[in-house]
Design a protein that fits this description.
The protein has about 725 residues and is an alpha/beta fold. The protein contains 24 helices and 25 strands. The strands form six sheets. It has a seven-stranded mixed beta sheet. Strands 18-25-24-23-19-20-21 form a seven-stranded mixed beta sheet, with helices on both faces. Strands 10-9-8-13-14 form a five-stranded mixed beta sheet, covered by helices on one side. Helix 19 links the parallel strand 19 (about 580) and strand 20.
Length: about 725
């Protein structure tokens, strides 16, 4: 723990208000490796952004030299695994009340070490750049996605309204002095509450109708003849002038929140209509993800625009200024060469203090909001084959809205936690502190799950994908980069020994019989998913469970979703030009399921792009592992060998390290290749990629989505049973 306090005279109460006790590991994380700072100083809240380098462990695979050896008799693993240190970049964002700004800056200054340059970029009411031992200067930067034009309404202490037409053409068109600072200031006078989030908490428990005068209070039942809702606010705080009683702090806070939110919503709507814009993005820490605030602003926009203008909100809206200031200082780093992804392990949820802080620290440190972004060393773009990228939603079910599914999946992930901890420890048998780190992982992920039980929206849209990704981020946080590396190594070795036998049996079949066998092989391979408890229990209790046993587990035709006859008929026509296949699991899945299917497509004259994860997730095959697997298969099979040599079979990385698949964030190199080769078939396999995500994804070409449902609850919800089969062949409408 590190004490951070502001010096000076004053009472002990003043001292408490001006000081904070901060655990540097949880608030200003990785400060010793910080390189650049940016600060957005508003009238009420300060937002800090800084860039740091992060050293973490990664699992690397390297092929053994098998020249001259009989791979059928070779008992060595197919490759060796080593754990190496890798340095990546991370962006940190921290928000705190201005009360603490002096103490926080002193804390940062005292903990800066091992850096060549310390630059603080700042924006706010007046944007200035602070560089150590230099005079300040002004800098500005904007960086928005291609969603133009729109209105940006930033609600800080006051309100600033900007019309944005392109990435570099925008105009400040208006504003208001009535904003978040007004809510805070008047709220403090009315309720004697000094903290911003405490005001929001009071408002969340209040009933504004006890203080506000409504239309029905004036007109009674006659309001209906006027075409007005009786619940409309006719006069904010209207009852306080005539009522001979005290009003609760909660009711006054709620009335104040509604008054200011309605005013901002109406103002934004008027500006949007004046400039012929139909989208308004709201940012600034007044919003704070507070449902009542967003609901009131949305209602106001809809009411005054008659539904013609849409109100949109940003999850981390309060960091817009800090991000803009930071980007200006990062121009020399060629930002177009990489992408950023949120690190859920280091981000706090909306409307919550960091769950890792104990209650005493929360009370003492006030409200701190944390966001961390990891730099991905490649640009990520849309799959060119998406029918409409603007309407594409990766996830099949939104757990934020689906309470029943949310309760099930949160419980499911909680119950799986012991097994994940056990697997993490087992993956590092030579480590003396693996058990300790695994327990820290358990506690961190458990805390995230509890936050989500109380606030499902805390980390954005809650989905099975986000739960899986958060778990992977937390594992990485405590240096468990690939808990399944040894499992994958063993499974790949076993499956490679079976490859030639499987190919011989397939080649012995007639054409039509072979097509069904290939599909069943794909499905049987997909059973081998260590992320599914029903499967991992079988694999741990029965080491002899193999490819043939998995085939017998499959549902008999007709399958739960069965387009196989339509697919077979298509295969009787001309070959596809190029197939893009997203692989799932290591071992039996990729070697005995995917590669025989790939081989058949190659024989038909179809080029194949096989896309695998860039980084590890569960027992999913990674790009680096797929290269070695393909090399070993090519040594056994002349068809695969010649296809690799002639570049008719290309192995690519997706840019992802997730068990699921977001087709709007793919490695740019993969997207370019898909376009160049004219891919006209997309194959997505696995529950994570084809059911939890992309089940409803619409593409501009033919697609195959196939998976085995390895979760009883999900199977029942879909109308099937455990090991039911999804085989969904889709052709775009003409």
């Amino acid at each position: 723990m590190a004490e951070c306090g502001a010096s000076g005279s004053g009472s002990s109460g003043d001292s408490l208000d001006k000081s904070i006790t901060l655990p540097p590991d949880e608030i200003f994380r990785n400060l010793e490796n910080a390189k650049r700072f940016a600060i957005d100083i508003g009238g009420s809240l300060t937002k800090l952004a800084y860039f740091s380098t992060v050293q973490h462990k990664v699992a690397k695979v390297r092929s053994f030299d098998h020249s001259g050896k009989d791979t059928e008799q070779d008992h060595e693993p197919p490759y060796e695994i080593s754990v190496q240190e890798e340095v990546t970049a991370r962006l940190h964002f921290v928000k705190f009340e201005n009360t603490y700004i002096e103490a926080c800056l002193d804390f940062i200054k005292d903990h800066l070490v091992n850096t060549e340059t310390k630059v603080i970029q700042a924006t706010g009411g007046g944007a200035f750049v602070y560089q150590k031992d230099a005079d300040p200067e002004f800098r500005f930067q904007t960086n928005h996605p291609n969603i133009f034009p729109y209105l940006l309404v930033n609600i800080g202490s006051g309100v600033s309204i900007v019309k944005v037409e392109t990435e570099d053409r925008f105009e400040w068109i208006g504003g208001s002095s009535i904003g978040g600072g007004t809510f805070w200031g008047l709220g403090a006078l009315l309720t004697k509450t000094k903290k911003f989030d405490e005001l929001l908490h009071l408002a969340s428990r209040g009933q504004h109708a006890n203080v506000d005068m409504l239309v029905q209070d004036i007109y009674g039942g006659a309001h209906q003849t006027l075409g007005l809702s009786g619940n409309l606010i006719a006069s904010s705080f209207g009852k306080s002038a005539t009522a001979d009683r005290e009003f609760s702090r909660e009711d006054m806070a709620k009335s104040l929140l509604h008054m200011i939110s309605n005013d901002i919503g109406q103002l934004a709507c008027l500006y949007a209509k004046l400039h012929c814009l139909d989208r308004v993005y709201f940012g600034g820490f007044f919003i704070r993800g507070h449902p009542a605030t967003m609901r009131t602003i949305t209602y106001s926009i809809n009411f005054f625009s008659k539904g013609e203008v849409q109100a949109l909100f940003l999850r981390h809206e309060g960091y817009l200024g800090a991000i803009g200031a930071f980007l200006k200082g990062a121009e020399q780093d060629n930002p177009n060469q990489y992408s950023w992804g949120e690190n859920y392990a280091g981000s706090s949820g909306l409307m919550s203090s960091s769950p890792e802080l104990c209650p005493t620290q929360r009370a003492r440190s006030g409200t701190f909001d944390l966001l961390e972004m990891d730099r991905l060393e490649r640009p990520l773009v849309n799959l060119p084959l998406l029918l409409d990228p603007s309407s594409y939603v990766p996830d099949t079910v939104d757990l934020t809205d689906d309470a029943l599914a949310r309760k099930y999946w949160l419980t499911c992930f909680e119950e799986a936690l012991d097994g994940v901890v056990k697997r993490a420890v087992a993956s590092q048998p030579g480590s003396t502190d693996a058990a300790e780190r695994a327990e820290k992982f358990r506690q961190k992920y458990w805390n995230k799950l509890q936050t989500l039980r109380q606030q499902p929206f805390a980390y954005g849209t809650l989905t099975v994908r986000s739960l899986l990704d958060t778990r992977e981020h937390c594992l990485n946080e405590f240096s468990f980069p690939d808990p399944y590396s040894k499992v994958k190594q063993k499974d790949n070795g076993v499956a490679l020994k079976c490859f030639q036998r499987v190919i011989r049996s397939l080649d012995a079949l007639g054409w039509e019989e072979r097509q069904l066998a290939l599909v069943k092989g794909l499905l049987a391979g997909n059973v081998f998913d260590w992320g599914a408890k029903a499967v991992s229990d079988v694999l741990e209790s029965d080491p002899q469970f193999g490819f043939e046993e998995a085939k017998r587990k499959l549902q008999e035709r007709p399958w739960l979703v069965d387009s196989y006859s339509k697919w077979l008929q298509r295969l009787k026509g001309p070959p596809h030009k190029c197939a893009l296949i997203f692989a799932d699991n290591s071992g039996v899945d990729v070697i005995l399921g995917v590669f025989p299917f790939v081989r058949e497509l190659l024989c038909r004259g179809t080029e194949v792009i096989l896309a695998c994860n860039s980084g590890p997730a569960l027992n999913d095959v990674t790009y680096s592992e797929s290269l070695i697997v393909a090399e070993r298969i090519a040594a056994m099979d002349p068809i695969v060998h010649s296809a690799l040599r002639e570049e008719r079979l290309l192995l690519m990385q997706t840019g992802s390290s997730s068990p699921c698949l977001d087709l709007s964030r793919l490695d740019k190199g993969l997207a370019v290749l898909v376009r160049e080769r004219g891919a006209d078939l997309v194959v997505i396999e696995g529950m994570g990629r084809a059911v939890h995500t992309n089940y409803h994804a619409a593409l501009r070409c033919e697609s195959l989505k196939l998976a085995v449902i390895k979760n009883s609850w999900l199977a029942e919800r879909l109308g099937g049973r455990l090991f039911s089969v999804i085989f969904k062949y889709e052709v775009p409408a003409e």
